[in-house]
Amino acid sequence: MLLTALDGDETAVFKAAVASVQIQVEPVGRWFEAYIKRRNRTEYPMLRTLDPKDWKNQDHYCVLGLPHLRYKATQKQIKTAHKGIVLKHHPDKRKAAGEQIGEGDNDYFTCITKAIEILSDPVKRRAFDSVDPTFDNSVPSKNEGKENFTEVYAPVFERNARWTSKKHVPKLGTMESTFEEVDNFYSFWYNFDSWREFSYLDEEEKDKAECRDERRWIEKQNRGSRAVRKKEEMNRMRNLVDSAYSLDPRIKKFKDEEKARKEAEKKAKVEAKKREQEEKERARQAEIDAARLAKEKEEEEARQVAQLAKKEKEIQKKAIKKERQKLRTSCKTWNYFTEEESDSVKMMEEVEKLCDRLELTSLQSLNEILALGSREDSKVAVVKQVQEVNAQLQREKEAEVQQRQPTRSDHASAGGGGGSGKGFNEEDLQMLIKAVNLFPAGTNARWEVIADYMNLHSTSGTKRTAKDVIIKAKSLQRLDPKQKDDTNRKAFEKFNKEHSVVAATIDNAQPSERFD
């Protein structure tokens, strides 16, 4: 605004003023801005809003203004930062400035105290660093690392290297890394020894325990939760290394090179080895064919023997059945040689006993007498056979009683166990002795063969197994010489009686007469 002109003064314009222009200036320069940035970041903006009761969930590095250094901060830097924070936020300073202060531990300054308490103690600081909320625990997916393997996985391994206590940590390397470098890298990480622990996350504090038992219980609970988290951490690290190993193109390249080298070495030996294998295969096939033919021949021979034995047994069985029927018919024709009905029933039982006990030759001889002789001669022959059979049954009972005595004593001395097999009459004993001598030791499936032989030739109708034959053979071996001699003597007497009866029957046979 111009001054008022006096009387006689003149107003004149000598020069026009330039219009004002707004420009952006840098008061001090980038150094000033860096200072302002450092000053602003040294103080946690949410510091005054922290809850002292929830101090465990706070970021202690942010509270002290060290979020940019974190686990790399030295003790000197931590103490310096703490000193600056205390000078500004101490309750006495704020109270003097007229600020309202919380009572006791309810003031946010308690969070600063807890932060310096933890970060100044190496053990507590390590526990907090292990659960650093800013640490990225993620593992790259396979899709992320397929194309840019080194760019994706190198930073991940570098940030996880902070958990090792070893000073020299191998780098992931480049695509030109040698096999030794790559192998050393994965050997280190597969045997990674992590100091990371999770005691900071303990839900219970043992210092608050009121007694020793409660403290022990808290320690037990904390150990369990730490072990679970430690296992999860080891699984995370293993998944990271496995994922990197499976996607590493260098590993594939090394494997392909190793495979090509081995194939080249193997190819040089293929021809010679192939001829050797072909020769061995021919020899083996010839041996297999020879064994097969021998087995087929043996099976065929065994089958033929079994068929012959079965056929012979069927013939024997039919012949015995036929002779038994003839005996029953002949006795029935003569009314069982009795006049009274009660005697007839008894004689029928005796005839059935003869059918069960007599062998084929004896039945045939007796049937010849009944067919050719008179009623009286037939009765005499039948009664004589009945008496002999009853006498033999009595002898068998006595022999079996005698045999049971040493068998029981032997079993008692041996501590028991094992049966004596099914009952053996004199005929079966002689047949067993004959079969044992006929099929000596070394015979293939010897005891099964002996059992089949006895089942084929025995007239007792009792089926013998290999186990029954073995038990009875061992029982005979345990007999003393007197008992063996007695058994042989009885068998010889039986043989003489049977043959003497047949001879007498033949000598006394009357010529047949024909009545027209």
TrEMBL record:
Location of region: Disordered: 393-423
Where does the UniProt entry say this protein principally localizes? cytoplasm
Q: Name one GO molecular function term.
A: Hsp70 protein binding
Keywords (A to Z) from UniProt:
Chaperone, Coiled coil, Cytoplasm
Q: Does the record bear ATP-binding in its keywords?
A: no
| Location in the cell | Cytoplasm
Q: What is this protein called?
A: J domain-containing protein
Q: Which SUPFAM superfamilies match?
A: Chaperone J-domain
Instruction: Tell me which stretches of the chain form a coiled coil.
Output: 254-330
Q: Which GO terms describe its biological process?
A: 'de novo' cotranslational protein folding; regulation of translational fidelity
Do you know which PROSITE patterns this protein is assigned to? DNAJ_2 (PS50076)
What GO cellular component is one of the record's annotations?
Answer: cytosol
J domain location is 59-132
Where on the tree of life does the source sit, at the highest rank?
Answer: Eukaryota
Which stretches are tagged as biased composition: Basic and acidic residues?
394-411
